[in-house]
Design a protein that fits this description.
It comes from Sutcliffiella horikoshii. This is Alpha/beta hydrolase. InterPro entries: AB_hydrolase_fold. It is a single chain. The protein is an alpha/beta fold and 246 residues long. The protein has one domain: 3-Layer(aba) Sandwich (Rossmann fold). It is 35% helix and 19% strand. The chain is built from 8 helices and 8 strands, in the order βββααβαβαβααβαβα. It has an 8-stranded mixed sheet, with helices on both faces. α4 links the parallel β5 (101-106) and β6 (124-130). α2 (49-60) packs parallel to α8 and α3 (78-94) packs across α4. The chain is globular. The two termini are 28 Å apart.
């Protein structure tokens, strides 16, 4: 696979592209969670055995994968959305791909994905979310009960949004889940039933209810934590459903 991957810098961030041996003409943007990284010759999606398995399975289905370091723990900041959009445009120029892409987002990557769904509407075919964080305000409020984690998360979010830590609670411009309810892009969520960082009651269930109320339902697949890196084939099946129209 090493022959078919490349790393490049853009806007001070490292980015990666993986091209399959037999491309199907469709691209997929991956947006990682808080532990995600890309450097000049590696990434979490290559280094981590479970995530690498997902990457290998999706490449085997013919998808060209691309992703960015996105400033590390970005928590859905405007900066991360802009960088992801720029990456999309560069990949469209460099690779021979259909201009409507799929997205895979894990954890807090869903915060950026939701905003891309608003901003790149026509360019997105479908979105696969893995144990997503979708309501940042609710997550921050929940973290208050865990003092050590709250301090860490608060510092990360303040840094990502360029806001003084002591002003974060009063800050009004964090993404609000309600603003994404009008979206009709196909979404499927893969959610573990235990050992999750982001409580599904705060995130995926809330989003599921929002979309149902808007007559644009989504699919949620719950699975055991032991199976959390075995859903590459089912993500590919989901993507294929939305490739009839080029």
């Amino acid at each position: 696979m090493s022959l078919n991957q490349r790393f490049f810098q853009m806007g001070g961030q490292w980015n990666a592209v993986h091209v399959p041996e037999k491309p199907n003409g469709f691209g997929c943007l991956i947006i990682g969670d808080t532990n995600h990284f890309v450097d000049e010759h590696n990434s979490l999606w290559l280094q981590h055995i479970g995530r690498n398995k997902i990457v290998e399975e999706i490449l085997k289905c013919g998808y060209t994968l691309f992703y960015s370091n996105l400033y590390g723990a970005h928590w859905g900041s405007g900066q991360s959305v802009l960088q992801a959009k720029q990456l999309y445009h560069i990949i469209m120029k460099q690779e021979i791909l259909n201009d409507k892409i799929h997205i895979i987002a894990e954890g807090m990557g869903a915060l950026t994905a939701l905003q891309l769904m608003e901003e790149l509407k026509e360019q997105i075919r479908s979105v696969a979310l893995i144990n997503p964080c979708m309501d940042l305000k609710a997550q921050l409020a929940q973290e208050k009960d865990r003092k050590f984690f709250y301090k860490k998360v608060k510092n990360e979010i303040a840094k990502a949004y360029n806001v003084p830590v002591n002003e974060l609670e009063a800050y009004q411009d964090l993404p609000d889940l309600a603003q994404f309810q009008q979206c009709s892009i196909p979404v499927k969520i893969w959610q573990t039933t235990t050992n999750f960082t982001f409580d599904p009651n705060l995130h995926c269930k809330k989003y599921e209810e929002l979309r149902s109320a808007n007559h644009s339902p989504i699919t949620v697949a719950y699975h055991l934590v032991e199976k959390r890196y075995s859903y590459g084939p089912s993500i590919c099946q989901f993507f294929k459903k939305y490739e009839q129209e080029l």
